Amino acid sequence: MKKSMIKTIVITLASSLVLVSCATKGPMQPFPEFIPQTFDSNYSSSVDNFLIIMDASSSMNGNYNGNGKNIIAKEVASRMNQFIPELGQTSGVRYFGFIKSVSGEQTGILYGMEDYNTQPLADGLDKIVIPTDGFSPLDRAFNASQNDLEGLSGKTAMIIISDGEKLEPGTANAARQLKAKFDSAICFYPVLVGNDPGGTAIMHDIANIGGCGFYVDSADLLSGPAMARYVKKVFLTKGATPPSKAEKPLDSDNDGVVDSLDKCPDTPKGAKVNAQGCWILENPLFDFDRYDIKPVSFSQLNEVAEILEQNPGLRIILQGHTDNVGTEDYNMGLSMRRADFVKAYLVNKGISKRNISTEGFSFSRPVATNETEEGRTLNRRVEIMPLK
Fold first, then answer.
1. Closest by alpha carbon to 95, among 159, 138, 152, 49?
2. pLDDT more than 70, % of the chain
3. What pLDDT is attached to residue 98?
4. Phi and psi angles of residue 127, each rounded to the nearest 5 degrees, phi first
5. With the C-alpha atoms ordered 26, 30, 32, 34, is the resulting torsion angle positive or negative?
6. Are the beta carbons of 188 and 206 closer than 8 angstroms?
7. 105 CB contacts (<8 Å, ≥6 apart)?
8. What CA–CA distance (Å, rounded) separates 385 from 357?
9. Is the alpha carbon torsion for 189, 194, 196, 197 positive or negative?
């Protein structure tokens, strides 16, 4: 079967799948026995590519249903790998978290992208080690996966296996950007390991953002028959010609947001944008009622300075924003102070102040709900508007 006639699937197994100590070298409770199913020639692949993104963050050290969450996640990934037929797909494994032995980065590629083969993919899964501390930068894995999928044709499904805990505030936004870039060519299939209410909610949200995938609990995938049904539903087609590849939606400024959704066209190369395509300093940057950016985020300002240095004729407006706590007048001043702080930092880095203007919008232009702490965090921001 020609690859151009097959869908693309990105599997985001947002789970830690590797053992971390002598106490976690095997399941504490036995998993259901299974025999991998061989699918007959009536089945063909419904995917061109799939990418497995695994959670290597510390929250996966916890337990669920009598076993370590990392062990459950590895079992799900391993069984899935044993059921998927090798039909010429392109595949890969990416992690998020912190694996010093691999790259020391917050996300990295462990295998692929290359022609799918069961054993090399299993070897990629085995490289993941769960740290004892750290956070869960799934948003960075989403962003990096845009490059993993660049140039690949067909439809994309992203399967996310995670406990959903301690995810960065920008996770849903990064999922929206990924969806915006590939539009109808991408679907999300979250698989939850655990029962954390917040984790459950964000995993459901990601499925809804994808619009064409579905959410499932890891406990429902461990039996042989259940995994066979899952693999057939996600990876295989029977008795029909696979749909032709969707045309890639136009993204004129190559910022990852298609033109039809891009509210800020002509962003310069390398600029990080939000779901609306606007050049933005990624969250979290500002604490509540503060205008000074956290030192941990100075690297983002340095990246902005580098882009401006590479484009010496580029003029920008720094637009400050706030959440809706407090009066409009107070927040107008706070939004201006945030924009002015960023300007002062960039000028100190050698950027001409004549090329930078500032303005504030108080809480008049939210990009997320102000009903939740996560939403308010996203609204405390500075956007960067290039001027032609």
1. 138
2. 87
3. 77
4. -80, -10
5. positive
6. yes
7. none
8. 10
9. positive
Report the 3 state secondary structure along the chain.
CCHHHCECCEECCCCCCCCCCHHHCCCCCCCCCCCCCCCCCCEEECECEEEEEEEECHHHHCEECCEEHHHHHHHHHHHHHHHCCCCCCEEEEEEEECCCCCCCCCEEEEEEEEECCHHHHHHHHCCCCCCCCCCECHHHHHHHHHHHHCCCCCCEEEEEEECCCCECCCHHHHHHHHHHHHHHHEEEEEEECCCCHHHHHHHHHHHHHHCCCCCEEHHHHCCHHHHHHHHHHHHEEECCCCCCCCCCCCCCCCCCCCCCCCCCCCCCCCCCECCCCCEECCCCCCCCCCCCCCHHHHHHHHHHHHHHHHCCCCEEEEEECCCCCCCHHHHHHHHHHHHHHHHHHHHHCCCCHHHEEEEECCCCCCCCCCCCHHHHHHHCCEEEEEEC
pTM of the full predicted structure? 0.60
Which position has the token pair 């993941």?
128
At which residue do the structure tokens 């090798």 appear? 86
Tokens (6 digits) for 58:
């510390």
Using one digit for the tens of pLDDT, what is the confidence trace for 129-166? 776 666 789 999 999 999 899 888 888 888 888 999 98
- Domains of the chain and any CATH numbers: 3-238 (3.40.50.410), 279-387 (3.30.1330.60)
| Model confidence pLDDT, tens digit, residues 11-30 | 555 443 333 333 344 567 78
Render pLDDT for 267-297 as a digit per residue (tens, 0 to 9).
887 787 777 778 877 655 777 888 888 777 7
Structure tokens at 55: 């959670």
Higher pLDDT pick, 36 / 2: 36
Q: How far apart are CA 65 and CA 29, in angstroms?
A: 8
pLDDT at 366 over 70: yes
